[in-house]
């Protein structure tokens, strides 16, 4: 009977969402043992369809930093408006750089600084020591890749260096760390990668992982005096081969205010905001047709781009110069575009496939909702990282235990700041406005009390429904 009861518990827990399943570790020792069992975690990952490039959500991260206290980073759960976990104790030059499945990468553009792979659900983080680097490296960029066919993770480090003079003399390189017992570490260096630079404005843009390929915005050497991205570096995670594509010419001119890349329905999408015209274009790139392994290094190809949307963004008026912008498609199929403290929402489920394929320049789409976001305190900033899929997988299981030391997040607040807590709750409330989008046409979000459902209630409903189905069968 005990084995039958445990089997039923397994079936119940496998059907729970990741965050609710993690909370069940507090129910009993038996449940905690099940939820930390690697076999259960693997089954839960597959049952939740955690596959990079499809059905992800956006991870909301707020940051407060100072030289005295370092970085305080909160990962916000939009369903509750409260932090999933809070990171403290890192130096002020650390920042989140990339979300890959259930992990958030936190790194620093500093020599000899470890990289942290974090799981916001479990509150665990794993540090990876960087390899020795060349003396002339002036900037570093990190990304995490995933191979869907094998379930293997890799860590990529792009090092940018120059010898002075013109960019033609710049010799950058890539280093790769493979997670896991088999083939895990040390870092492997790929020499003479790409003669491109990395400016601070571009470095803040997170990489994009789509169908086993990493996409990274770059600045070409012809663009030396105008620091705007004009290249897309594509890295095949499995083979570690790469190819570079040029962005469309209109992306690189003076009329471009900002460029942001993200995943849209399994394809790379680039949002280009037009300066002084209050327009934003969304273009999707066809998957690379050539074999990356056969591509001649140093050449840039011209990819095939398809215009998907053109929107007007002048609803709230005023100048948009210097405002932060980002875009993401949430798992509710709502396309969201952030410009400063304004959030624009478009329901992609109403798209007509024929119209999308035959869209022409000048054809406009219209936002369904436009709302005002809360203003962040002076010492706080926030951003979203697409491609996140909650997972119970511990980052400690990714690396060899003999090489690294694992740590855990602080689940309690580093400080009790009412203003900070209020902002985080208001931000989560505004960003999760999807519940009301199909019911109300007002630009004002509804009362959150009508849509807040506790984790305990969701858990009771899930267990009750499962037992009813079990008895009925």
UniProtKB/TrEMBL annotation:
Signal peptide: none annotated. InterPro entries: F-box-assoc_dom_typ1 (IPR006527), F-box-assoc_interact_dom (IPR017451), F-box-like_dom_sf (IPR036047), F-box_dom (IPR001810), SCF_F-box_component (IPR050796). SMART domains: FBOX. Residues 4-44 form the F-box domain. This is F-box domain-containing protein.
């Amino acid at each position: 009977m005990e084995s039958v009861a445990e089997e039923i518990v397994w079936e119940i827990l496998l059907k729970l969402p990741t965050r609710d399943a993690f909370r069940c570790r507090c129910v009993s020792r038996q449940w905690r043992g099940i939820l930390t069992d690697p076999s259960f975690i693997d089954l839960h990952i597959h049952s939740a369809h955690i596959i990079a490039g499809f059905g992800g959500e956006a991870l909301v991260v707020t940051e407060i930093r100072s030289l005295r206290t370092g970085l305080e980073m909160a990962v916000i759960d939009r369903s509750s408006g409260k932090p999933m976990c809070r990171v403290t104790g890192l130096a002020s030059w650390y920042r989140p750089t990339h979300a890959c499945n259930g992990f958030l990468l936190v790194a620093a553009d500093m020599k000899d600084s470890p990289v942290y792979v974090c799981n916001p659900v479990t509150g665990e983080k794993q540090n990876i020591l960087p390899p020795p680097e060349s003396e002339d490296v002036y900037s570093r960029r990190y990304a995490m890749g995933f191979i869907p066919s094998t379930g293997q993770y890799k860590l990529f480090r792009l090092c940018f260096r120059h010898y002075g003079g013109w960019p033609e003399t710049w010799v950058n390189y890539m280093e790769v760390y493979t997670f896991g017992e088999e083939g895990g570490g040390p870092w492997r260096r790929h020499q003479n990668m790409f003669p491109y630079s990395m400016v601070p404005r571009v470095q803040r843009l997170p990489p994009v992982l789509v169908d086993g390929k990493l996409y990274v915005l770059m600045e070409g050497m012809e663009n030396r005096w105008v620091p705007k991205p004009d290249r897309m570096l594509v890295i095949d995670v499995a083979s570690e081969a790469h190819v570079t594509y040029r962005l469309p010419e209109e992306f690189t001119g003076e009329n471009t205010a900002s460029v942001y890349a993200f995943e849209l329905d399994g394809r790379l999408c680039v949002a280009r905001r037009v300066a002084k015209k209050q327009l934003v274009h969304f273009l999707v790139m066809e998957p690379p047709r050539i074999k990356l392994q056969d591509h001649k290094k140093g050449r840039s190809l011209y990819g095939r781009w398809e215009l998907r949307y053109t929107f007007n963004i002048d609803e709230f008026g005023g100048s948009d110069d210097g405002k932060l912008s980002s875009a993401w498609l949430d798992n509710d199929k709502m396309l969201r575009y952030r410009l400063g403290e304004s959030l624009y929402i478009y329901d992609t489920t109403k798209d007509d496939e024929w119209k999308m394929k035959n869209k022409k320049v000048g054809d406009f789409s219209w936002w369904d909702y436009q709302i005002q976001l809360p203003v962040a305190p002076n010492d706080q900033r926030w951003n979203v990282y697409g491609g996140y899929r909650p997972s119970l997988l511990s980052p400690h299981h990714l690396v060899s235990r003999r090489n690294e030391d694992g740590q855990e997040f602080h689940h309690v607040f580093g400080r009790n700041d009412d203003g900070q807590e209020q902002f985080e709750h208001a931000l989560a409330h505004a960003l999760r406005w999807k519940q009301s989008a199909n019911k109300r046409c007002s630009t004002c979000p509804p009362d959150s009390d009508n849509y807040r459902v506790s984790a305990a209630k969701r858990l009771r409903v899930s267990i009750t429904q499962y037992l009813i189905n079990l008895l009925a069968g």
